[in-house]
Amino acid sequence: MAANRTQSPHLPLGDRRDTAFYGQDILEVAQFRRADLSYIFGVAREMREMVERIGSFDLLKGKILASLFYEPSTRTASSFTAAMERLGGSVIPISEVRYSSVSKGESLPDTVRSLECYADVIVLRHPEVGAAKLAARYARKPIINAGDGIGEHPTQALLDLFTIVEESGRVDGLTITLLGDLKNGRTVHSLARLLSMYDVKLNFVSPESLAFPDKILAELDERGIPWEAHRELEEVLPRSDVLYVTRVQKERFDDPDHYARVKDAYVITPEILARARPQMVLMHPLPRVGEISMEVDTDPRAAYFRQMEYGMYVRMALLAMVLGKA
Ligand code: NCD
To answer: Percent of the chain, pLDDT > 90?
Structure first.
């Protein structure tokens, strides 16, 4: 949302508690405080109750979401669409920018300034870090970052945290292990930052060349979050309350040989899970490409499909909030 004369566009949300996110962009997890998260999750639970009771309702009747995706998406795009439609609103889907004026060379600022003439909120996924912030500088309407390259994926982190809360009943006191492509995975970048608002221990398990970024590790140090980096999952699995598995992000590799060397670094099988805690929560943002075997899907600890459903409720909550209806 571009600045106007009376307010700066990116005030921390806490400074506008009275308006509860109305008109706000959602760009990165650093804009949230713990109280904001409890509020969002409370609204998400209300959304779940309403969906279970009546399926869809008219809270956002007449509102339009522009869904602008410059990178592939199954869950994020469709859950925002489902969220908007369950709230009675509608969606302009631009998921193949190839067929839009982007292919004629239109800039991101021009594309968002065009879409906001028709829509009330824009959900944007883009391959470049910082794209959502750039769009927000130009747009008058709220921009929701649905992933900016290897940067952040704040709405995924919110739904991941909501999954942890709903599945474990708490966040404080948990040991959470993030596994896989920790260098390029934007979901883990946002999630670790969000978790650093709680009293958690974090483990990072990855091949050396896909290690978690030093910059975010330094942020964790500043916040006093204990963390360990490992190469072998076995070293931390038995003491993990949550295991968050990620895909090796093929599209971020310049060197196909490097990708081939690391792509199968970890595969979660029933045999491996046998060494995990009986109540551990096994998560994955999806899509998976082999890092969790399908035989694991029937294990009650496998939460990744429930995680998707939690995502729709969180996105319903966020849309209602930024459009001033929650
Ligand atoms: C993730 C993403 O796009 O970053 N997918 C998603 O939004 N659920 C994870 C991934 O692509 O590996």
So the answer is: 90
